[in-house]
């Protein structure tokens, strides 16, 4: 009823269509020191509402050590103050400045206050 698999001709189009992209073999750039590059993301609304009423959380990940710091925020408008606090903590604890902040360019990161602070600190986004 059906032809045997070993008797089917090779179909180049089928083989290409079923192929998968190979994994990236290049080296990913890692931050040269702890605190140099920081990844940040704001998430929420948290449900059910936790004790203390924080609806959002702002997560910072140190690219070098992968250490994560989380701030619980009641409002998105608290994002700028949390970013300032985190950057100042890194500067104090590491004795080196944050040079790069990686984020999703959400509205909370492109607001005037955050951009002004980032520019003043010389941080590249």
TrEMBL record:
The keyword RNA-binding is annotated on this UniProt entry: yes
A single GO molecular function term of this UniProt record: DNA-directed DNA polymerase activity
Protein name (record): Integrase catalytic domain-containing protein
Keywords associated with the record: RNA-binding, Transposition
GO biological process, one term: transposition
Recorded catalytic activity of this chain's protein: DNA(n) + a 2'-deoxyribonucleoside 5'-triphosphate = DNA(n+1) + diphosphate
Gene Ontology terms: cellular component: nucleus
Domain Integrase catalytic: 28-125
Organism: Austropuccinia psidii MF-1
């Amino acid at each position: 009823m059906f032809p045997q698999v070993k008797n089917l001709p090779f179909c180049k189009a089928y083989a290409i269509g079923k192929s998968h992209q190979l994994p990236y073999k290049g080296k990913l750039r890692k931050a040269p020191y702890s605190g140099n590059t920081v990844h940040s993301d704001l998430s929420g609304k948290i449900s059910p509402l936790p004790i203390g009423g924080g609806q959002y959380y702002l997560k910072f990940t140190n690219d070098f050590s992968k250490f994560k710091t989380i701030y619980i925020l009641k409002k998105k408008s608290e994002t700028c103050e949390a970013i300032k606090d985190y950057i100042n903590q890194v500067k104090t604890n590491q004795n080196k400045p944050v040079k790069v902040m990686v984020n999703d360019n959400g509205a909370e990161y492109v607001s005037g206050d955050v951009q002004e602070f980032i520019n003043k600190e010389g941080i590249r986004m």
